[in-house]
Amino acid sequence: MTGKRLRLMVGLGNPGSSYLKTRHNVGFMVIDALADAFSIPVEKKKFDVLFGRGRIQGIEVILAKPMAFMNRSGLPTRRLTEYFGISGEDLFVIHDDIDLTFERLKIKMKGGHGGHNGIRSMIDAFGNGDFSRLRVGVGRPEGAKDVTGHVLGRFSDDERKVLDQVIERARDAAVTILSNGIEEGMNKFNKQT
């Protein structure tokens, strides 16, 4: 992901205050952390996407949060890539993942949706899964609890104690990918707990 091309980093989540600090919105949280760290206000709106344009480590980037609900985030994102002339190889998606334990990060170059409705929407909109992702672990619910209720629920008290550190590490992973490439990001962050 190095070079002079414009990059698009998209965090997946749901709009509205009722979803603000839910597990499903960690993608938004990471985008907000990047925006804060690099003074890139994510305040412009186009195609039902909130976005901001700026530089991270000298690389021109757009940080974006689709404001359609999670399962409809693909089409607004595709329209944004078309508007700015961004190719699939320069698209990076950040999202929650119940198949990873809480605190774990995993960077993937491409793949399927793994049951994630936001990624399914992205694949449907782009016609393939050929975009990189940063998966942020939120863990599975204990016992026979409802998965939807789990991802739309808020973090536990114990999780909240370390949530800021998890988001900061995810932010650092995104910066590493932008500045040093996805392979280095995978080597550095996929092996951590």
Largest sheet: 7 strands, mixed
State the name of the first-level CATH class.
Alpha Beta
- Spans of at least 5 consecutive residues with low confidence: none
Strand order across the largest sheet? 2-3-4-1-5-7-6
List strands and helices in order, with pairings.
Elements: E1 7-11, H1 26-37, E2 44-46, E3 49-56, E4 59-66, H2 74-84, E5 91-97, E6 105-108, H3 117-126, E7 132-137, H4 147-151, H5 157-180, H6 182-189
Parallel strand pairs: 1-4, 1-5, 5-7
Antiparallel strand pairs: 2-3, 3-4, 6-7
Report on the architecture of this protein.
The protein has 193 residues and is α/β, with parallel strands linked by helices. It has one domain: 3-Layer(aba) Sandwich (Rossmann fold). It has six helices and seven strands. It has a seven-stranded mixed β-sheet, sandwiched between helices.
